[in-house]
């Protein structure tokens, strides 16, 4: 800790004050309490890896801030922890997901998948009667179904627990009371629920299955969708949880749990029982699929080329326009210079998503401002800016030019003003013209300071999801018959979005994570080598 020298106004080493120590202990106590709470939740979910990681982080934080000395560690610890949580953890977690089949068809454990199949593996028995249903409550608050067959006049009662409340016929001897229309109005040891009570417990009522025999898979069960009528349902499958097999009753085919695919499948012909599966580790299969799957490899080549072109052309066009305007307005003799510069940065100050929607409206084929007012084209001659690949790509480049040039204008203006005017004056005295002065003096000096920003701009536009998504949605779709569709303006990140959040084949987070890792590797490699070239440029200009 440091104590303040009141006369000198400086901080010098000394013993920590009691007040400072108490404040530190209080803050650490709150942090520890939060960590303990989170760790308890993770323990309940059996997330042991995160339990260990958070425990280590908690112990490290307490060690760093409770011991005397180690001032650099006290300042670096929050930065390192945030780096671990928001960057390193995200990359590592994405890497882990990329080695799984995690997606909309495999989003849970084996047990959860089995339960989901059981929930959907039944259907009403063909020709079964509709029972008039009364929902009642037993003394232990469990639900009872009182079902009446009006054709035979028989009434039955049962609960979800067959051993306690078996499905059986009831008579007047059981305290059964009916009105003049034959509807049940009372039963011994049961309270018939009112409409309001049924409404309050509607989820419980519609999810209740009353076995009609000791073996629910064979005998079937009674279920309701409206709480007023019930039907006899039967399972289509016989489940053997011990052997992890499911037998289809209609044809006797046995499906086995396939741990390599996360599906119940027929070992003989590979038939899948249900689209509901579970998450399993598949190694590098997602990465090999990127290059081996014809449905991916075909459009992927074009998407990669367009991604590089989009990022490169965006950076070059915005830089040229921004630098040109900066050179034009880098003359103090121009009147109203501040006002002109303010107008030029308006696109940068305006929210990008609003600008994107405005431009999308202007690009409309019919009644769009660009077709009708600028180009003078009627509806029959209008350019299909958003529905044809070539015009759509031109459209997104134009929108990005509009949104990106103010940034380049600002940084170029700042860099130009940092160049000593003596250099230009000396070159002019030696006979150099404006173009030569710019090419040999100003541009090299500009690139020294602007090159890192241009690299960052390239990386940003390489993953510029917003503009592509808002203006064209990645479209127009090239081949709608593919499970994973690709659009003419799709860049890698929007293509990954399609994979991650569903196409005809459903969401595939594992494959999307594999793509994300590759994009990370590409951007990282480009940035690494580009910054090395930037360093070499600095050495040359020095």
Structural features, described:
There is one protein chain. The chain is an alpha+beta fold and 542 residues long. The protein has three domains: 2-97, no CATH class; 122-235, D-maltodextrin-binding protein, MBP (Periplasmic binding protein-like II), CATH 2.40.430; 291-541, MetI-like (MetI-like fold, Orthogonal Bundle), CATH 1.10.3720.10. It is 53% helix and 13% strand. It is built from 19 helices and 17 strands. The chain has helices at 18-44, 48-66, 71-97, 110-120, 195-200, 202-207, 216-219, 285-292, 294-328, 337-344, 346-349, 352-362, 369-374, 389-418, 421-429, 434-462, 465-471, 492-500, 509-541, and strands at 2-5, 10-13, 122-124, 131-138, 143-149, 154-159, 168-170, 177-178, 184-186, 190-192, 210-211, 221-223, 229-235, 237-240, 245-248, 254-258, 263-265. The longest helix is centred in the middle third of the chain and has 35 residues, at 294-328. Residues 1-13 have low confidence and may be disordered.
Biggest β-sheet, characterized?
A: 9 strands, antiparallel
Low-confidence stretches: 1-13
How many individual helices?
A: 19
Helical residues, percent: 40-55%
What fraction of residues sit in β-strands?
5-15%
The CATH superfamily of the largest domain turns out to be MetI-like
Name of the CATH first level of the largest domain? Mainly Alpha
């Amino acid at each position: 800790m440091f104590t303040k020298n009141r006369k000198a106004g400086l901080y010098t080493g000394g013993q920590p004050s009691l007040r400072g120590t108490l404040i530190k202990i209080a803050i650490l106590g709150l942090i520890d309490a939060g960590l303990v709470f989170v760790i308890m939740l993770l323990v309940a979910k059996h997330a042991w890896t995160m339990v260990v990681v958070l425990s280590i982080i908690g112990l490290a934080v307490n060690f760093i801030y409770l011991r005397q000395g180690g001032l650099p560690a006290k300042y670096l610890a929050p930065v390192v922890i945030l780096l671990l949580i928001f960057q390193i953890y995200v990359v590592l977690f994405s890497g882990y997901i990329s080695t799984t089949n995690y997606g909309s068809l495999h989003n849970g454990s084996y047990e959860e998948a089995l339960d989901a199949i059981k929930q959907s593996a039944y259907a009403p028995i063909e020709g079964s009667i509709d029972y008039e249903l009364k929902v009642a409550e037993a003394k232990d608050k469990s639900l009872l179904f009182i079902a009446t067959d009006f054709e035979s006049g028989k009434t039955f009662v049962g609960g979800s627990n067959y051993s306690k409340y078996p499905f059986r016929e009831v008579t007047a001897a059981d305290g059964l009371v009916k009105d003049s229309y034959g509807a049940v109005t009372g039963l011994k040891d049961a309270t018939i629920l009112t409409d309001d009570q049924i409404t309050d417990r509607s989820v419980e009522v519609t999810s209740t299955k009353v076995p009609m025999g000791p073996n629910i898979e064979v005998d079937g069960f009674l279920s309701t969708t409206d709480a007023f009528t019930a039907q006899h349902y039967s399972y289509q499958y016989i489940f053997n949880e011990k052997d992890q097999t499911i037998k289809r009753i209609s044809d006797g085919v046995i499906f086995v749990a396939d741990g390599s695919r996360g599906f119940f499948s027929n070992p003989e012909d590979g038939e899948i029982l249900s689209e509901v599966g579970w998450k399993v580790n598949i190694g590098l299969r997602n990465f090999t699929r990127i290059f081996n799957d014809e449905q991916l490899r075909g459009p992927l080549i074009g998407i990669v080329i367009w991604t590089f072109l989009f990022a490169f052309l965006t950076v070059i066009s915005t830089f040229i326009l921004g630098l040109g305007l900066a050179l034009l307005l880098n003359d103090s003799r121009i009147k109203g210079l501040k006002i002109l510069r303010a107008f030029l940065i308006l696109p940068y100050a305006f929210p990008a998503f609003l600008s994107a929607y405005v431009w999308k409206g202007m690009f409309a084929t019919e009644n769009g401002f660009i077709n009708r007012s600028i180009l003078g084209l009627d509806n029959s001659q209008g350019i299909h800016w958003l529905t044809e690949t070539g015009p759509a790509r031109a459209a997104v480049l134009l929108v990005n030019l509009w949104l990106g040039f103010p940034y380049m204008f600002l940084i170029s203006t700042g860099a130009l003003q940092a160049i000593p005017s003596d250099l230009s004056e000396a070159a002019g005295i030696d006979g150099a013209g404006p173009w030569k002065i710019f090419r040999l003096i100003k541009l090299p000096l500009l690139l020294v300071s602007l090159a890192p920003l241009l690299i960052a701009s390239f990386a940003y536009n390489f993953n510029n999801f917003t503009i592509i998504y808002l203006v064209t949605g990645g479209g127009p779709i090239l081949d709608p018959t593919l499970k994973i569709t690709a659009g003419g303006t799709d860049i890698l990140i929007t293509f990954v979005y399609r994979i991650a959040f569903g196409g005809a084949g459903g969401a595939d987070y594992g494959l999307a994570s594999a793509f994300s890792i590759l994009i990370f590797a590409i951007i990282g490699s480009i940035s690494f080598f580009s910054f090395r070239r930037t360093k070499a440029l600095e050495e040359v200009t020095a």
